[in-house]
């Protein structure tokens, strides 16, 4: 929700603002594995999830109380009934789905998010599969989230200077290559940590800059409706780990977990190709700031 509001409040340093906001999500990921591992060990899975749910509820409630929207100015409204009609007209305005760039961006993000979730689901179990301890697996995951926070912040700052779409393309290409060149050959604590750091730093930039790219397609007037539809249409990306698991179960790879590595790498590189096409459709100059 917060990601949909920030672009309306910031113009000049929009990328930086989104980077600061988005990095907070990753800081939570940095802390939670270190908290959940001892809770799960001493109190069991049930109480571990109850405690974490309570923490999330309290923090989320505070965030909602501080939440403030900022809608584009629409001039003077005549009466309350007019306001209500405008509200429902905006809420159910599906004309944005006729924009092919919007649909292309939705499909691209779905691919990227499907791939993004896979390492964070399976890195701890892969570490255990390699013979590492559960605490080492938690450390690898936390390190990746820590690098994710730094990478998101830097991507937001740099995007204001070189273009939001441009920086996302660079970040996701590096992320895809890291899966195919680092994760595929990671079989020790050190090599797995190296992959976690590289993927963590570069892998989440597209999430940080999703609102600004969506705003680029929808425009200010239709941004809130477009962002809401975007979130609904991309929800299928949560099944990325399930799809990767199904592929792993039915695949004939010589090594276990290889399908997860290739799945993530292919999702990212395919997403980079689609986003490059998206960029060139907006401006055919390859080095244009977009």
UniProtKB/TrEMBL annotation:
UniProt entry keywords in alphabetical sequence: Membrane, Transmembrane, Transmembrane helix
Domain Major facilitator superfamily (MFS) profile intervals: 94-290
Entry-linked Gene3D superfamilies: MFS general substrate transporter like domains (1.20.1250.20)
Residues annotated as transmembrane: 16-35, 47-67, 161-186, 192-216, 228-247, 259-278
Annotated SUPFAM superfamilies: MFS general substrate transporter (SSF103473)
GO CC annotations, alphabetized: membrane
InterPro entries: MFS, MFS_dom, MFS_trans_sf, Proton-linked_MCT
Record Pfam families: MFS_1
Molecular-function GO term, any one: transmembrane transporter activity
Subcellular location: Membrane
Major localization listed first in the record, in broad terms: membrane
Membrane topology: Multi-pass membrane protein
Family: Belongs to the major facilitator superfamily. Monocarboxylate porter (TC 2.A.1.13) family.
Protein name: MFS general substrate transporter
